[in-house]
Protein 1
Amino acid sequence: MALRREPTARQMRLAVELRKLRDAAGLTTRDAAALLGVSSAQISQIEAGLAGVSEKRLRRLAANYACSDAELIDALVTMATDRTRGWWEEYRGVLPSAYQDLAELDHHATSRHDVTVIHVPGLFQTADYARALFAYMNPEFPEGEVELRVEHRMKRKVVIEGPDPIPYETVIHEAALRIRVAGRTASQAQLARILEMSEADHVTVQVIPFALDDFAGAGSTLVHLGGTVPRLDTVVRDAPHGTAFLDSEAQLEHFRTLFRRVKEASLPPEQSRDLIHQLAKEL
């Protein structure tokens, strides 16, 4: 079977988890290869995300790595054997791979938590708001390139607006609600959209008001995606070199704690809706 040229974030995550299990067992790639009767190069390819692994081989490795976490093993098997080709595949080779990786992670997530400071969360953005953002950040893009990105962002909303939405909690700084990214009319429509979504049973919206004392988290924009088991959670961060997917246990626990702290410091949902209503009237 040909090696993958560009593994997806989900494929890379499976590879990383298998490498973690092997390292925890104190085994080398040569040891793992001997367990499966393959070459150490094949193990290296699997652990680099360049090659897949069958359910049978994955379970054999897990058993020999003395992994007794049945839920984790089942989740890894699902990752290894899932052949879903979602709507995002039509954008592969058209948009940067991070767009497809984010959409695929959303699709498989069991929950999502966002903290945004400057911009409205992507899953809440109207087309006009997203269009203004993409056009500003990429002034050299022709209109068609901007529209592709807007179209992709609108389709990603299926995870909270579709027939089987996931639980979604977001904390938005008042700054993001006040900045008129796309003009007054578009801003009014954007606030109305947030208020509409805040009424959904699976959605929780909280606001960090300007009046909050001792808030040092102004740069703490983050996305936390729940995995099938907590160990498979993912944190997404914007980095200078592009989108970063964080998955170490220490990083995940750090950002879970950070989200809890920001959430506790924010206005409760009802007061948050009152503030958004007030801001809409002021436009």
Protein 2
Amino acid sequence: MSPALPRLTRRRTLQGSVALAVVCGLLLWWLLPAGETTPTGRLTFSTGVKTGVYQRYGELLKGALARDLPGVSIELRTSEGSQENLARVASGEADFTIATADAVAKYQQEGRPGAGRLRGCARLYDDYVQLVVGQGSLVRTPGDLRGLRVGVGQDGSGVRIIAERVLSAAGLDPAEDITPVSAGIDTMPGLLERGELDAFFWSGGLPTGALQKLSGRTAVRLIPLDEDLIDRVHNAGEATRYYRSAVVPADAYPLIMGGSVQVETLAVTNLLVTTADADPELTESLTRAVIDSRDRIGGEVHPAQLVDLRTAIYTDPLELHDGARRYYRSAKP
């Protein structure tokens, strides 16, 4: 009888091991969410000029995504701004981008290639229009820019759209009544400082680092855009409904405004944009990372602090992407 005992023990040991493996497998299956995987691959994110808020936001978001989506390789591509960003995403040159709502509406209304494929992921933060002149300038209103050299943003930027609309609302022909200078926030402050510009338009989050640095080197002012002017901007057409009256708070640029004066202006919302073809799982994960990284990014890019889960879902004029919608449903309290 004794020779049979070891074989019986081995058989029971084997059976016990199999049973344990089955139990562990069932437990693992129970604990892990069904169908949940981590996205992999690569994506291209179109940003903006090198010294602008879009680029810095993109750099910090890339860092956040590296932690949250380690299987996804992210390439950042600088651009002239919203208009070029939309064209890149619509054509497939980029997967995600940031663009202002008015630029999106213009792209749609003009029936540009791929406009019907564009989708929103999140409402991010507002851009504020900032019309900058030297401290000693005689300019007090946009109408005073007649005959002057004015930076109006690059051809593919959202700044260009807003600058032309503000100038038109002020009774000026943007092509004839000023000398328009095509330049971005990376070069306009230097041009103004050297006397090669009399004024420039910028539309960006508050504060914009390039303006902070400019104010530390030379005395400048912000020109108010009052409600009457904004009403005239709104009369220009449907896309202008995305502008709202706002103020640049006194503490945004202490060296420009002395920390005690706020300036009337207009603001427009920025949207995180992709296309209907974007992978829903990746889009859901990226939208989650944008919301979750708000405080980390906001520590360096102040406008990002204003990203809010309660309002991020409102991506008008874009339809919400299915993946982003899935995230908002899961995050709903």
Protein 3
Amino acid sequence: MQIGPYQLRNQLIVAPMAGVTDQAFRNLCLRYGAAMAVSEMLLANPDVWDTDKSRLRLSHSGEEGIRSVQIAGADPDAMAWAARYNVEQGAQIIDINMGCPAKKVNKKLAGSALMQNPDLVEQILKAVVGAVDVPVTLKIRTGWDPEHRNGVQIARIAEDSGIASLAVHGRTRQCMYKGEAEYDTIKAIKQSVSIPVVANGDITTPEKARYVLDYTGVDALMIGRGAQGRPWLFREIQHYLDTGEKLPPVTVEEKRQVMLDHLTKLYTLYGEFKGVRFARKHIGWYLDQDAQRDFRAQFNKLETAAEQYSLVECFFEEFISELDKEQITNV
């Protein structure tokens, strides 16, 4: 898949997820085989940029791979300004968010709320594309609600406005993340435009990845929640796409090393105080099984990096032996 001058090495992209796809997570997914990782959403409002969270999102120091930065907003001029500013800071691709279903974003008529206003969508897209000399991509949903799936209309506007590629989550805004993603609309979008189209939603296994590619005919897949606590999913999917065979389950030792590496990256990125708090969420995803409830409860009470690191080590040294092989596979 080609995005402007950038040739992706495969068909797998990390979806932008607020509070999740920070640099630590993005780099981990890239090392496990993702071709590109899109940054967390940044509001096109410089008044809210003077925070530690926004400064980290604006910084690309230590970034691996193609630097794709997602911006969100409802004002064409503000979006154009934000795009230019991020390019000046090192962004190589600007991604526009019209897929976020969160109320706090939608109440400002940004994110997926924009799909209700195709005229404004066109104004924003043309303003951003005209403001920068790097590729501009777009992420949308299939529509505002199941009765108003206008993804094909928005896709055609995107193509006419100069958007370099389009990612589509297979749910409407009203659906949030409930139920199952549908791919008929994504298939129709792919058939209606000539720009690259990326499918997103419920791609959690190698078999599902193969199915979505074959059914929709899209150019690439965007994977989000399926990779939380499972960055090796990209390696598993790519191997299956290449060979038709599944890799053996990740070993306990590799999971241990990935978790410890992720902790180190979080502490380095945020500092110990905030890193410890972000780690609670990520480690919970790695160990999201009933058998590990006691561990998670204990981990979430810890206040230092050393304590967290030590508990993970102890978990694998002392507790794994108590689990049977099936439980070990699902740690």
